[in-house]
From TrEMBL:
Family: Belongs to the thioesterase family.
Record's keyword annotation contains Hydrolase: yes
Pfam families: Thioesterase (PF00975)
One Gene Ontology term of the molecular function aspect: hydrolase activity
GO biological process: lipid biosynthetic process
Keywords, ordered alphabetically: Hydrolase
Protein name: Thioesterase TesA-like domain-containing protein
Domain Thioesterase TesA-like: 4-224
InterPro entries: AB_hydrolase_fold (IPR029058), TEII (IPR012223), TesA-like (IPR020802), Thioesterase (IPR001031)
Keyword Signal: no
Length: 236
């Protein structure tokens, strides 16, 4: 099975290398290199999250080639993973067998939450963004300065949530996350007909995952292994 991983704003695909090191051989990690990030740093950054979701959906559909796959994303990456799953559904294409979202409120809460915490009348709270960059660099993630345009694109996005997804959802978060506090993460069950697979909190702040790759890999592998037999990871 392939696990497509969506990086957060400003992060390169290589941020997921530590996760790959701890996953079982039955799970193939495919980290997405988004426009304007990492090896694609010279390309224009994202300004339309919905359109990017449609583009990624097309790429994933061709790349998976009928093989079962799952999505994992953190923060803005989780938002893009959700939009990609919605785009696959709208196009009547096979979707993920599991959507694992980390540090993201459910779609119906996203716009109000961002307006109250991250966005301000004068613009995006870049001080908060700078704090996240410091945390990432502390943990060895080579991040470029986050473009204000990209931060605005994600922070002001309004998910459409046209219809519930048909895959189970795993929700993850940091116990001390001030951007998406744990008590704001509930509500994802309303966006899937398959229910929640798990709800997990890990010690740490918004970028808790950078300190918990092994546990994160173990938990994702457990969730994938618990899927129906025809959707489980298989050796290839």
């Amino acid at each position: 099975m392939r696990l497509y991983c969506f990086p957060f704003v400003g992060a390169p695909a290589e941020m997921y290398l530590p996760l790959e090191a701890h996953l079982p051989e039955t799970v193939e990690l495919c980290a997405l290199e988004l426009p304007g990030h990492g090896a694609r740093s010279r390309e224009p950054l994202t300004r339309d999250v919905t359109a990017l979701g449609r583009t990624v959906a097309d790429v994933v559909s061709r790349d998976a080639a009928g093989r079962p796959f799952a999505f994992f994303g953190h923060c803005a990456g989780a938002l893009l993973a959700y939009e990609t799953a919605c785009a696959l559904s709208a196009a009547h294409l096979p979707g993920p067998v599991l959507l694992a979202v980390s540090a993201l409120v459910p779609p119906h809460r996203y716009a109000p939450h961002m307006a109250a915490t991250v966005c301000r009348p004068t613009g995006v709270n870049m001080a908060l963004v700078a704090e996240m960059i410091r945390d990432a660099r502390r943990c060895g993630v080579a991040m470029a300065a986050i473009s204000k345009a990209e931060a605005v694109a994600y922070s002001t996005h309004t998910p459409a949530y046209p219809r519930p997804l048909t895959c189970p959802v795993t929700v993850m978060g940091g116990s001390d996350d001030s951007v998406f506090p744990p008590d704001r993460l509930d509500g994802w069950a309303a966006h899937t007909t398959a229910g929640l697979k798990a709800f997990r909190l890990y010690p740490g702040r918004h970028l808790y995952l950078l300190d918990h790759w092994r546990q994160l890999a173990d938990d994702l592998a457990e969730d994938l292994d618990a899927l129906p037999h025809d959707a489980r990871p298989v050796q290839f």
